Structure formats: structure tokens, C-alpha cells
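fold-stage: in
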Amino acid sequence: MSGHSKWATIHRKKGLIDAARGKVFQKLAKEIYVAAKSGTPDPDQNASLRMVIEKAKAANMPKDNIQKAIDKAKGSSEGEHYDQIRYEGYGPCGVAVMVDCLTDNKNRTASFVRSIFTKKGGNLGTDGSVSYMFERKGSIVIPNSYDEDEVMLASLDNGALDVLNDGENYNVTTTPEDLLQVKKALEEIGVTSFLECEVAYLPNIEVEVSDEQKEKVLDLIDQLEDLDDVQNVYFNMKE
């Protein structure tokens, strides 16, 4: 869902078929459930839940699906339990990879993730082995059909760290704390289409690879993202 060579994910999301989109919604529902379960199910009082809801909206998850996940957390005293686990390692060509999971079976998840790394020419590392190459930041992506000066001004005046135009989209980087404030400012100037709005881990060190090597890395990422227990995959390949 969130494999980042900075803004790589959103370009790859465009090609999702319905089945893949349904899988994304299932993962988002799990994330919403966990956020609502770990705090209050009221997004106004739960910043983590509010962030996940914004992420779900940007992925075009139907409102009914979002509400069902919240209601599920509300209506269950015990319910399902998920552990949050992060795996760190290297893919082909020395590309750093972080894999965030929500799982009800740690052994199963560890086995699947390790198997994919091994089969696809990578290897798992220890905690902290690659995370130092990433920073937790807010990420907003919108089409560049909006006025650039207005987007720039609204974003930077409300705490954005950077605004980049990649030729297709504006990529706005914020601190995690300022993400929703910047989104609100963009909405106030008429922005209605958000392709991405989430807190993610963005690379501060990037690795450049050949086109052939890139395909191998993306194959690894696709295989990891296809696992039900995997929520987000972050990587530092330059695209």
C-alpha cells in the first residue's frame, strides 16, 4: 500500500484492478479497526484513527466500509487481536526495505515474509538495520491540475516542509503533526482530489538501479504487498 521510493506508490496504485482494490480496502479496514480499538472510536478524539480515515479516503474507500470497521471495534469487547510487527531488510541491489504488518499469527507472518525475501534475492536484517534511512513524514499527493502558486502558498503557509511538481502531481511533504492542517488548507483553496494523504516513512537515502534491477525490486515489493498481513512496504529505490 505504501511502498515508497518517495512517491512511487501512487503511480502504481493507478493500475489496480477491482480485486486488488478490494484487498487494499480489507487492509485499510484492519488498520481502522486497530486504531479504533486501541483508543476511542471517535476520530475527533483519536488522532491515529483520524489519520487512517484520511488515508482510506484518499484510496477511495467507501464511507460505509470505513464506518463498518469503526462499528466493529465499538461493538466488540474482546474481538480480534493484531500485533504490529516491522521487518527490515535488503532487496536486490542493496535496496532498503521496511515491511509493516498487522498479524494475528506472528510465526506465520515471519515465515511468509522471510520466504519472499529469500526467493526474490533479498535478505532480512535486524531491527534498525535500515530504518535509519527513512523518516516519518506526512505525504499528500494531488493532481497538478490545480494552480501551482495557490497550492504552494497554501501548503507552505500551513507548515508544509516541501512541495514538488513531478509533472503529473504535486507531492507535499509535512511533519506528521501538520498533515491534517495542510490538507485542510488545500481543501479551502478548492482541492477535492487527494491521491494520497497519510503518514509514511520516506527515504532520506536513495539507491539508483538499472531498469532490469528495478523490475526485480518491484517484484519483491509486489509479492510482499500481496500478503494479507502486510500493511505497508517502504523502500528507498530511486525512480
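fold-stage: in (second)
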Amino acid sequence: MIKTEQILSADILNKLLLFSELTVQQAKKIILICKIINYRKNEIIFTEGDQYKGFYILLNGSVKIYKISFEGKESILHLIKPFESFGDVPLFEGGNYPVNAQVISDSELVFIPSKEFIQLIKNNSTICFNMLVGFAKKMRRLTQKVEELSTKEVTNRFARYLLDEIKKNSTENLPEPFVRMTISKKNIASYIGTITDTLSRLLKKLQSEKIIRLSGKSIFILDMNKLKSLAR
């Protein structure tokens, strides 16, 4: 059986904003309490109101964090990509899971149990302090996301989404930077605060303006300068 510490490394933990300030030795202490869990596409990880047990790190695949309104409308708050953490909000403030989490492709996750984790940082004040810096970075990013949803148009938000995905996938220096759509249009549309039909029309518009080129499930960028202008 493969041990968790053979899959995880300090370098992987340091990719997370939450753990970005930890030393190698501090990261190794956290790895010892972790558990690897595999989920199949569309499996629910937790639902809003479930008893809090711990938080997660996505190693492979994709996860959506969402809420359901009283009218039954789904709103995606975040699309988790590899080496991002989620489910950590109730860790210190208590309470149950405040959102829903579902895998949208076969995924491999790291589970960090809350009781063992709290005990670990209680006994290691430097780990706690270094994590506070990581929390601040994460909160800054979430604040930017809220600002974008409230002040920018759909075109701006989608352009920003494309630029973020290009950066995450390290394709920005290619002759035609590209984004591979590994999740459905419906999930992308919900994430940028619109509906699938609007996103489809926007894709056609950007293609007709020769800003992007669609090929299967990939979006190739033909005019990076115009895309960056739209994202402002």
C-alpha cells in the first residue's frame, strides 16, 4: 500500500496559499496526519450543514464549491483546481460546512482531519503563525473574486477566467496560448455568474472577433492583447 507521505511532499503543500509559508519540517508534520481519498465523477464530498470533520486538498481532477438557493438555483462559488485547498473556513470558527462540494471529474484528494490538525498547531505555534500569513493571502484572493462578480460584466469575468486558466496551465508563452475545458459549460457559466446560453453566445462573439479560436474542448487565444483589455 502506498503511504500518504510517498504521494505528498513539502513542495506540494507549499503550492497552497494556506501552507505557502511553512518550512519543510513543518509541512512534513502535517503530511503525517493526512489521508488520500479517491472520488468518482459527480460524487458529493460534503453538503451544506454536514458536521465538520476536516478540510481537503485537491491533487488531481476538479471540484466545484456551490450553494443552492431557496428556489433551487445552483451558484458556483469556486472551481477547485489541483493543489488548492477547500473546506477550511469552519476550521477555527467552528460550525458545519457552509457550502456544498462535489467532484466534477474523477479526483484524488488529501483529507486533513480537523481534530488532529488543531492539536498539531496547538503544539506548534510557529506553524500557526506561518499559516496566518497563508490565510491572509487566500482571503485577499477571495475578496478579489467577490469584487469581480459584483462590479464587472460577464465578458470581463470570462476574459479574466481565461487568463487565470492560461497561467495555471503554463501555456502563456506558446504561439497560441490555450485553455482546455475540462469542466462543462454549465459549470463555467455558473462560476462567472451567468448562464450557459450567454456563455455560448459570448464564445461565438469572441471567435467572430478573432480573439479566440475554438477547437474541440480547447480555447486558443489569437489576440492576447485584446483578451487582456477585456479583462480590465
